[in-house]
UniProtKB/TrEMBL annotation:
Gene3D superfamilies: alpha/beta hydrolase (3.40.50.1820). The keyword Signal applies. It holds the Pfam family Palm_thioest. One of its GO terms (molecular function) is palmitoyl-(protein) hydrolase activity. The keyword Lipoprotein does not apply. Residues 1-22 form the signal peptide. The lineage of its organism: Eukaryota, Fungi, Dikarya, Basidiomycota, Agaricomycotina. It comes from the Eukaryota. It is an enzyme of class 3 (hydrolase). InterPro entries: AB_hydrolase_fold, Palm_thioest. Its EC number is 3.1.2.22. Belongs to the palmitoyl-protein thioesterase family. Keywords: Disulfide bond, Glycoprotein, Hydrolase, Signal. This is Palmitoyl-protein thioesterase 1. It comes from Fibroporia radiculosa.
């Protein structure tokens, strides 16, 4: 039995056999869609019915796509707990190892972050990005933090305990290392306390000039597209404009602290953007930051909303082809 190696022509859909085969074997193969990595949100798990359904719908849109759902623990309960409790720097580090371990991802992938999973994936891009992210889509994420800790469903005890602990001392050393939401809590009315206590968000947003890291900017601007989705009726993320890098203005007068109608500073007026601390402006001026909306409440990811985005920004053709032996196809004669 003779095996003939086939040449793989990456620029076309055809595979030609080597000349040693009498008549050329032509085979029509589809290019392999770029893989997708998903990071679920607060209170969710990597294998929840909602996430599994989403994955299967994405696979209907892009047949054959490889999808990885990020987990911090293979146990579902522990994975859910890790959305409330843990050190986010360590979590992102663990995820970078997890992703680097997966051979299907080695040429890069598109990524979708749901809610807090979005800013955590951005941290991955800025700090690791190996394997690299092509397009990053974030749904209802808190890129400029939150100015209030989200409420919990009445029966959700894990959430309620975490929330109570966070409200108690959101900027305490303990909270900043152990409570996930505290690590992206950013209250413009207490900016000094935030800047001196927060580790995670000040880092990924390069808000501290003394420790700013230029790699974050070059890595983030290496994205092909950054797609930021805001839920128009989001009242969980305060303010909802955080999904678009907006935040409340820093009150210049302490007396303004309790003023109810707070002004939103949009992305393009943020110091982070104007001085391009993280490469966001470079990306935007290239036309590669897309501000999108979903009509519903926080994480009401309706099909009308996600499907056009998944069609446009996920599963693009790679130069890889669906072949049994990954790089070469062996034909038995
Ligand atoms: C990566 O793979 C190695 C070897 O299979 C394994 O020991 C390790 O736990 C994996 N790391 C992560 C973070 O998944
Ligand atoms: C900047 O970030 C990169 C990527 O995480 C890291 O390797 C490097 O040590 C950081 N540099 C400084 C000065 O902290
Ligand atoms: C795509 C890209 O720029 N990736 C770089 C991100 O930063 C790390 C250093 O931490 C580099 O190794 C990557 O090449």
């Amino acid at each position: 039995m003779v095996f003939h190696r086939l040449l793989l022509l990456t620029s076309s859909l055809l595979l030609f056999s080597s000349e040693t085969i009498g008549s050329p074997v032509l085979q029509l193969l589809a290019p392999q869609p770029r893989p997708l990595v998903i990071w679920h949100g607060l209170g969710d798990t990597y294998g929840s019915p909602g996430i599994l359904e989403f994955i299967s719908l994405v696979q209907d849109v892009h047949p054959g796509i490889f999808v990885h759902s990020i987990h911090l623990d293979t146990d579902l309960k522990e994975d859910q707990r890790a959305t409330f409790y843990g050190n986010v720097d360590e979590q992102v580090d663990l995820v970078s190892e997890q992703l680097a371990n997966i051979t299907e991802l080695e040429e890069g992938f598109d990524a979708i972050g749901f809610s807090q999973g979005g800013q955590f994936l951005r941290a991955y891009v800025e700090r690791y990005n190996s394997p690299p992210v092509h397009n990053l889509i974030t749904f209802g994420s808190q890129h400029m933090g939150i100015s209030d800790i989200p409420g919990c469903r009445p029966w959700d005890l894990v959430c309620q305990l975490a929330r109570r602990a966070a409200m108690g001392g959101v900027y305490s050393e303990w909270a900043q290392k152990n409570l996930v939401q505290a690590q992206y809590y950013r209250d413009p009315a207490r900016m000094d306390t935030y800047l001196s206590s927060n580790h995670f968000l000040t880092s990924i947003n390069n808000e501290l000039a003394a420790t700013a890291n230029n790699t974050y900017a070059s890595n983030l601007s290496s994205l092909s597209k950054l797609v930021l989705v805001l839920f128009l009726r989001d009242d969980t993320v305060v303010p909802k404009e955080s999904s678009w890098f907006g935040s409340y203005a820093v009150p210049d007068d302490k007396a303004l602290h309790n003023v109810a109608d707070k002004t939103i500073v949009p992305m393009r007026l943020q110091p982070l953007y104007l001085q391009d601390w993280i490469g966001l402006r470079a990306l935007d001026e290239r036309g590669d930051v897309l501000l999108e909306t979903c009509p519903g409440e926080h994480m009401q990811v309706t099909r009308d909303c996600w499907e056009p985005l998944v069609k446009r920004f996920v599963g693009g053709a790679t130069t890889k082809y669906v072949v049994p032996d990954r790089e070469v196809l062996l034909v038995q004669r």
